[in-house]
Design goal:
Blueprint: E1 2-8, H1 10-16, E2 32-36, E3 50-54, E4 76-78, H2 85-89, H3 92-104, E5 112-114, H4 121-132, E6 137-142, H5 145-153, E7 159-161, H6 167-174, E8 180-185, H7 190-197, E9 199-207, H8 220-224, E10 229-232, H9 240-256, E11 263-268, H10 272-282, E12 287-291
Parallel strand pairs: 5-6, 5-8, 6-7, 8-9, 9-10, 11-12
Antiparallel strand pairs: 1-2, 1-12, 2-3, 3-4
C-alpha cells in the first residue's frame, strides 16, 4: 500500500520511550493510517481502493510512518467516500478501541457512559460513539478551561470542566446523583480512582491507557459497596469477529455523520518528531496526523 497519512498515538510515544518491552529497535512507528492499495488486495480491496488500517504495525513490525507498507487484508477497512485520508488515518485505534471496550462493558442504549479527556483520541471517540448509539448520558471531562469551551462549541454538552468542579461532583450533577454505568478510562493516574468513585451501583470500569500515570490508588469501598467491577482492555488481541462488528458500526456512523473525527493538526513525515512532541507536550484537542 502507498501510505497517505499516519495517525500519531500515545502508543507510539510509549514504544519510543522504551516502556513497551516487546517492541525492539530498529522499528518504524505508526500503528494506524490511511493508504491506497497498489497491489495484492484482490476483489475485496481492488487496486486504487482508499483504506484505513490498524494492527501490529509500529509495535512488533514496521509501521505507518513510511511511504509504503504491506498490511494484512484483515486489518483493512474501506474509507467512506466523504471522509478524507487525513481524518481516516486517526480513526482506527481510537474508534475500534472505543467500540470494543463499550461492547465488552455491556453497553446498551440508555446507559450512562463516562470517558475522561474529551480532547484525547479515545476519550472523544468513546463519547461520540456512546452518544451516537443512544447513551442516556455521554460524559467526558477536561482539565483545561479553554478545551471545555471548545468542546461546548463542538456540541459536547456533557463535559466536566475540572477547573471548576471535581469529576465525581460533575458526574453526579449530570446524572441526578446516580453516577455512570460504564467508565472507559484511557488516563489512569489519579483519574482512575476518581472515575471509580463516580460509578453507579453495579457499574463497571475498563482501564486501557495510562497517559496520566501508570500508578493509581483506589478506594476499595467504591468497588465493594457499589458491587462494581474493574477490568482491562487491549485492542490487538481481540477476535476477528469483534473487529468486523466494530468496523461495520464505525463506517455506518461515519457515513451518516453521527460521528465526526476531529483532527487538531497535521505534520509532514519529515516532522514526525515534532508531531509526537505536539501530541504529548501540547495535549491538543483532537488527533495528530502525519500527512505523507
Amino acid at each position: 500500500m502507498r501510505i497517505t497519512a499516519a495517525g500519531v498515538t500515545p502508543l507510539d510515544h510509549t514504544i519510543l520511550s522504551g516502556e513497551y518491552l516487546r517492541a525492539k529497535a530498529p522499528l518504524v512507528l505508526g500503528s494506524e493510517g490511511a493508504a491506497v492499495v497498489e497491489e495484492g488486495g484482490g476483489s475485496d480491496f481492488p487496486v486504487g481502493s482508499r483504506v484505513m488500517f490498524a494492527g501490529p504495525h509500529g509495535v512488533s513490525e514496521d509501521g505507518a510512518y513510511s511511504e509504503w507498507l504491506a498490511v494484512r487484508k484483515e486489518n483493512l477497512c474501506m474509507i467512506p467516500e466523504a471522509i478524507e485520508d487525513v481524518s481516516a488515518a486517526g480513526i482506527p485505534v481510537a474508534y475500534l478501541t472505543a467500540h470494543m471496550s463499550l461492547s465488552l462493558a455491556g453497553f446498551q442504549a440508555g446507559k450512562t457512559v463516562l470517558a475522561a479527556a474529551i480532547g484525547g483520541s479515545v476519550g472523544n471517540a468513546v463519547t461520540q460513539l456512546a452518544r451516537a448509539l443512544g447513551a442516556e448520558h455521554a460524559i467526558s471531562s477536561t482539565t483545561n478551561h479553554n478545551k471545555a469551551d471548545q468542546a461546548k462549541a463542538l456540541g459536547f454538552d456533557e463535559v466536566i470542566d475540572l477547573t471548576r468542579e471535581k469529576l465525581g461532583d460533575g458526574v453526579r450533577r449530570i446524572t441526578g446523583g446516580r453516577g455512570a454505568d460504564i467508565v472507559i478510562d484511557s488516563i489512569a493516574g489519579e483519574v482512575l480512582g476518581e472515575a471509580l468513585g463516580a460509578l453507579a451501583p453495579n457499574g463497571n470500569l475498563t482501564t486501557l491507557g495510562y497517559s496520566a500515570g501508570r500508578k493509581a490508588s483506589i478506594d476499595v469501598t467504591d468497588l465493594i459497596w457499589k458491587r462494581a467491577t474493574i477490568k482491562s482492555f487491549s485492542l490487538f488481541p481481540q477476535p476477528p469477529a469483534a473487529w468486523d462488528e466494530a468496523w461495520r458500526t464505525i463506517v455506518a456512523l461515519l457515513e451518516s455523520g453521527a460521528i465526526k473525527p476531529i483532527v487538531a493538526k497535521t505534520f509532514p513525515l519529515a516532522e514526525a518528531a515534532d508531531a509526537m512532541r505536539y501530541l504529548i507536550e501540547d495535549r491538543p484537542f483532537g488527533m495528530v496526523v502525519i500527512a505523507i
